[in-house]
Amino acid sequence: MPSSCPAWPPLSVGRPSVSLRALCWSALLLPALGCGSEHPYSISPVSGKLVTSKPIAADRIIVTFIPQAPEVKGVVSVGAAQGEVNPQTGDFKSLTTLKGGDGASVGRHKVTVVAVKNSPEGVPMPIPAIPAKYQNAKTTPLEFEVKSGSNFFELPIESK
How many domains does the chain have? Predict the structure, then answer.
C-alpha cells in the first residue's frame, strides 16, 4: 500500500513503527489545523490622540483598550490591547493585542490611560499626572467601539 509520508530511511525492516506513523499523520494534519497561526477573533488597527487642555508631564503614557464583551471561541478569549502615547503630541499608533501593532479586538472597550515616570533607579512608576478615574477600567468614562477596518479615536482627558 503506498504511503503518503515522505520517504525516510527505514528505521527497521518491515512496517513503519507506530511513532513513525504518528509523525507522518501529524505532518499531514497540522497544516490543515492552522497550527495556531491565526487568532480566532477579529482584530482591527487602532490609533488615536489624547486630547488635553495642557501637556501631560510624563516619561511614558500608556493607553489600554479593555474588551467589555470579549468574543470567546472555545477556551480562547481576547485580551486587552495596549500602546504607547507620545507624551509631546498625544498621538498613539499601532495598539497591540498579540503581535506588535496588530490592533484591538472588534467590539466595545473601556479605555484606561496611565502616566509613568522613571525613578532614579530607572524603574517605571505610575504618577498622578492623569486623574485617577482614567486609570481604572471600572471608573474610566472612556468607552469606544472598535469596528472592522482602521479605527482612530480622540481620547478627551481632563487635566489635573
Answer: 1
